[in-house]
């Protein structure tokens, strides 16, 4: 009976260490800049947008910021559900699989809406600005230096 308890304790400690590693990694490892941040820097510092473009871009950015916050809140809720499923199943069972699938769906929705946001911003640009914008998108998505 004592061996079973030791094994259970070892499994729990291993699981806690793994979770701690994920949390520490997410908090302290510098994440790569999101594509949209690089594009916003380009828009506001290098493309010489005029006042009308600036106003139109502000409207687009404010609308997307609201939607992005909602999707990010959904992702956080999905992470809570995933943690609860892991706590219940202690392995990759049906509840964990369903929570992962739900999280992937929300991530996909965020990615789609981010792309729609990027294309909305591009539509405001003049052709000469759009060329530089497109180059920045390709560079950001492929990590290529041009």
TrEMBL record:
<protein>
    <submittedName>
        <fullName>Periplasmic heavy metal sensor</fullName>
    </submittedName>
</protein>
<dbReference type="InterPro" id="IPR025961">
    <property type="entry name" value="Metal_resist"/>
</dbReference>
<dbReference type="Pfam" id="PF13801">
    <property type="entry name" value="Metal_resist"/>
</dbReference>
